[in-house]
Structures are given as C-alpha cells and as structure tokens.
TrEMBL record:
GO terms for biological process: nucleoside triphosphate catabolic process. Signal peptide: none annotated. This is Pyrophosphatase. It comes from the Bacteria. Gene3D superfamilies: MazG-like (1.10.287.1080).
Length: 96
C-alpha cells in the first residue's frame, strides 16, 4: 500500500468511527499531542515508542487528507529539494 492509499484509509476510518473531520485546528492539536506522547515515550524509554510514532503518522496522514494534500507527493518533492540543498554546519560551543 502506498502512502496516498494509507492516507485515504486513515480518513475512511475517521469517518467510520465518527472522529473529527471538520475542525482542522483540532487535528493540528491532536497531532501535536501525539508527538508529545512520542517524545515522552522516548525520554522515559517506554516500550510503546513505535506505537506513539505510528499515532503521529496516522494523525498527520488524516490531517493531510482533510486538507486535500497528497502527503506522499509533498514528501517526495521535499526530499528532492533537500537532497539538492547545500547545508552549512555551524559549530556551537557550550563553553564560555
């Protein structure tokens, strides 16, 4: 299954379960909350880090579908842009 199909499957599940499909701001908040839970799982070395990251991806896919954005294509476009970009790394010293 490609990412676009998965995006549509996530959206369909939201419809079938009666989840939010109209309040975009709320979906951003839920996505942020899931990312926070994943960070906490990482910091506390919990066994459910993978599941929490999956929740982040699911909310992001659902949000993309609500907004009419093909996330798979956007990721491919951004990867191509990043691969061509030249980065300048700055050294940061924590010593005073």
């Amino acid at each position: 299954m490609d990412l676009l199909q998965l995006q549509k499957r996530v959206y369909q599940n939201k419809i079938e379960k009666g989840f939010n499909v109209t309040d975009i701001f709320q979906e951003f908040c839920y996505t942020y909350g899931e990312l926070s839970e994943a960070c906490e799982a990482y910091l506390k070395k919990k066994d459910d880090l993978g599941e929490e990251l999956a929740d982040v991806a699911i909310y992001l896919l659902g949000l993309s579908e609500l907004l009419g954005i093909n996330l798979e294509q956007e990721i491919m476009n951004k990867m191509e842009k990043n691969e061509k970009r030249q980065y300048v790394k700055k050294m940061v010293s924590l010593q005073k």
